[in-house]
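Researcher: Last one for today. Full complex below.
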Amino acid sequence: MKEVLGDIERWRARGDRIALATVVATRKSAPRPIGSKLAISASGEFAGSVSGGCVESDVYDHACRILEGDAPQLLSYGISDDQAFTVGLPCGGEIDVFVEEVPNTLVDRLVGVVERQERAVLFTVVEGESIGRELLVLEDGEQVGEGLSEASDQTHELLRGGRSQLLSLGDGTKVFAEVFGPPPRLFVYGAVDTGEALCRAAKAIGWRTILADARAKFATPERIPSADELIVGWPEEALERVRPDYQTAVVVLTHDDKFDVPAIKGALDTDAFYVGALGSRRNQALRRERLLEVGVPAAELERIFGPCGLDVGADSPAETALSILGEILAVRARRDGGSLRHAKGRIHVEEAQPA
Amino acid sequence: MKEVLGDIERWRARGDRIALATVVATRKSAPRPIGSKLAISASGEFAGSVSGGCVESDVYDHACRILEGDAPQLLSYGISDDQAFTVGLPCGGEIDVFVEEVPNTLVDRLVGVVERQERAVLFTVVEGESIGRELLVLEDGEQVGEGLSEASDQTHELLRGGRSQLLSLGDGTKVFAEVFGPPPRLFVYGAVDTGEALCRAAKAIGWRTILADARAKFATPERIPSADELIVGWPEEALERVRPDYQTAVVVLTHDDKFDVPAIKGALDTDAFYVGALGSRRNQALRRERLLEVGVPAAELERIFGPCGLDVGADSPAETALSILGEILAVRARRDGGSLRHAKGRIHVEEAQPA
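Model: Here's the assembly. Have a good evening.
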């Protein structure tokens, strides 16, 4: 959405009505990911892309007719190998694109959501009787549009998981739930090698990384180049500044109770969706005692992932980082790690069907 | 070992005897990883490091006495927080360092092993009656030294796992098994985004990366900057060039049976320790049929990890790469990739005890 914002604002400023085409599902290789947008103005301009050129022309034609009064439409395209080839994709797949005219009030609010990185879910009926109905729900409950309560009941869970996806409602209606918001955050306490490796791996998947250590000598950009933000401070100060929320993973790496205990205690006082700590099983047990002593309720200790990480036999800092980040992703997606070929559930989130 | 080779060869050339100090175990934070070496010549020179400066002076003194006739020794050091601080480590841990004089014949062969990246395991008794006994076993069975058959029976498994570690023999003898050889290799077929992301992640853990695709337009350094080697060729040609062995993971990513089927079939004809392929469960089933049709024995199909990756809810290419590389590490270490806090076994390989 961000890439078409400038054009949309320009068109809106002169009073143009606007159609949006959005990739709502992909199968096999797709040129552009779910959520990719082509915006079309009533005066015939366009911005963005849903397929890097394979199907834009056809989508554009549909959008023009919709701006002239046609009903919104869900279009499915097979990307042939030849088409894929011309856009630099080794082989083709299939994409579903929903095209609709978006009401001005909704466009205006959406622009604000994207510009200010507000957390919100836009529900759009893409198949079913009320095709084209839309509802924008913000994190604080603010709504633009109405209805769709069966879908909007899932707002919090969708914001938590952070993935745009197609929902199937009880009556067969298909709703595209598009999740907006800032990237998840990783907060690491401990300027050790594994901390740098963890920040590096998290940046590679698009997360914002913050690392803190009480010792200015260690929390330096030279030692920790992959932290978007470096904080020199004790755990309490650092947590106060970072304020972990339900989109923040906290990993405590110092191996030293002087830092680990207040860092874990502080993290458990937040909504952090993941609180992980290194250490052998013996040290985990000792640390639990320390945490109980400083007043952490026993039930809260269950939130600690310790020893943290997936059981992949990690050895070096980079391998340990991969193991921990894998567990963080799994926890966020409510998966349990383990080989996919033995897993019973879905593979990709975009194939999700709510229960 | 590589970092001290030049000095060792120089000392050997003038006939000096040589002592080697090796980190054989670490607990909590350690300044240098397992296998790190300090080499000391009989004329008093030294090279390398076992702790970045914390304990080198004491190790050096022991090495000098050993070169004067003292018995080899296993030394344990606690790295205090203050010492750790001075070497840039946020907190201290413990390291065990074994110091010994290494016989000339063994030094000579070891130099060759390291220079030519030969696969070999050096077994050294670090605790027990025969302390200081050494046996070098190469992949092809060549041996320098004798005895230690209970340990050397594990040579193949140690080479496969690729981790230096302490072994405990039945009589309580402790043997440090140091594994030498080139880094593991990742071979990806399919110049797609996930292929680049996978090469990038594998390079971050020190692996050698090779990617192949039949289409020259895709297998370019611009699209796949993280491949150490790019091959333009059909699966059969590429596999013939790469010759995957038991230290090679093969991942097939094209989504197209025209490439996937011969790539998987060819990979199954090798000793590759991992053969993974993308695709939904339905496509996996269809592909199995195709593989049976082209003559792959049913039992061999069990070697395929498909859908490949750990169940972490991966979505983007970078997340999918992390999920696949996590599974590759787990398979190599014979772990199952679930959360460590629920795992019953050991966390780090260096704490390994053979059965």
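The radius of gyration of chain B is 23 Å. Residues 346-355 of chain B have pLDDT under 50 and may be disordered.
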